[in-house]
Amino acid sequence: MQNKTELIIYNGEIHRVLRKDEERSLLINCITRTMPFYIPTVDISDCPTCEEKELLLKTKIIVTDIDSLSAESKKTAHQRYTMISPVLFFLGNEGARSYMIDEVSKEYSVSKQTVRKYLCLYLA
User: What's the mean pLDDT in 35-50?
Assistant: First the structure.
């Protein structure tokens, strides 16, 4: 996966470019936090970039260093990342991604929607 620093304005909203090649790019909408989707790379070639601070202001998310979190918050963050990590390998393959989300939801006894929520929040 590409470095998660490329943010663009696409269709009036902030998107993170998760993967990009000559043919297509994998994006996630950082505002609505819907599942990643592919579009032709040419469709984003002229999109303006966006700074991380603009995203943080728009979403009102407060970013803190993980070391400054409480022990309970660190534990929760680690548990959620452990939960979604198997799905990260299949982001670009919708069928495999759906299958892994289903498997993870069964393994951790949480809804598929919860897994998708944690995944999208992490990616955005």
Answer: 92
